[in-house]
UniProtKB/TrEMBL annotation:
Taxonomic lineage of the native organism: Bacteria, Bacillati, Actinomycetota, Actinomycetes, Pseudonocardiales
Family matches, as HAMAP family: Thymidylate_kinase (MF_00165)
Record's catalysed reaction(s): dTMP + ATP = dTDP + ADP
CDD domains the UniProt entry points to: TMPK
Organism: Amycolatopsis halotolerans
All residue ranges annotated as the Thymidylate kinase-like domain in the record: 12-162
Gene for this chain: tmk
Name under which the protein is recorded: Thymidylate kinase
Length: 213
């Protein structure tokens, strides 16, 4: 553990079916086995606003959904993420700002608006963007079942993939330490082993040069 007692904030974003939830779960296990205190969480959060966003994407759309998700994000940072970082945890968050750059745009919201409502969100210590060819993510979603109106078919997978590439560049330009990881060929274990090593490096050597995609 580094000499500062603050933890490390890691976020995972990427298209539906790319492996965010799987990787978050495995990171909790792998980092935990190495003796690091880990808190895994998700956005939308499990608090009231987050549950409204998750379960009512048919009702709330466009700017209303963008603001609802951002409001939940600020509340999540205040009540859950920062307190765990202050207590020295590695916080691993399944979806963060990059998801808004993509999903809200798929919902017709202009990027400057999305950037504005998310501009005060804390910068992660590592912003992982998981990527895979659209045919692969679409097949995984089809096998699992789509969770919502954003994820139906290879066409939306391709649009999502392109938008994540653009989001990664925009966020890197805003100073986010973006790390792109391909899950198309790599198994869940490969991905988790690689990211565990990168995160452990950050914990042990917090002043190491920042990554950029
Ligand atoms: N690296 C991987 N290689 C192959 N299959 C994967 C990989 N990561 C996840 N999967 C599988 O793809 C499906 C979607 O994974 P999930 O973690 O739910 O994605 P997301 O949270 O990004 O939507 C699951 O069936 C999961 O087992
Ligand atoms: C994090 C996030 C979620 N959402 C909305 C759309 C998503 O479909 C919904 C639920 O998130 P999602 O991660 O797809 O939920 P799950 O896989 O657990 O069912 O929240 C946004 O619109 N923008 C965001 O930035």
């Amino acid at each position: 553990m580094n000499d500062s007692s603050r933890g490390v904030f890691v976020t995972l974003d990427g298209p539906a079916g790319v492996g965010k939830t799987t990787t978050t779960r495995m990171l909790r296990e792998y980092l935990g086995k190495r003796g690091y205190p880990v808190h895994d969480t998700t956005e939308p959060s499990r608090a009231l606003l987050g549950e409204i966003a998750r379960h009512h994407t048919e009702t709330y759309r466009g700017r209303a959904l963008a603001c609802l998700v951002a409001a939940d994000r600020y509340q999540h940072l205040e009540t859950e993420v920062r307190p765990h970082l202050d207590a020295g945890f590695i916080v691993v968050c399944d979806r963060y700002v990059a998801s808004s750059y993509v999903l809200q745009r798929m919902d017709g919201v202009p990027l400057p608006y999305v950037e504005a409502v998310n501009s005060a969100a804390d910068r992660p210590d590592l912003a992982v963007i998981l990527q895979a060819p659209p045919a692969i993510t679409a097949a995984r979603v089809a096998a699992r079942g789509a969770h919502d109106r954003f994820h139906t078919g290879e066409c939306s997978s391709r649009q999502e993939t392109d938008l994540y590439e653009e989001a990664a560049k925009r966020l890197a330009a805003r100073g986010y330490p973006v790390l792109a990881v391909d899950t198309g060929e790599a198994s869940p274990v490969d991905v988790a082993v690689y990211l565990t090593a990168r995160i452990a490096e950050l914990v042990e050597r917090p002043d190491a040069p920042a990554v950029t995609a």
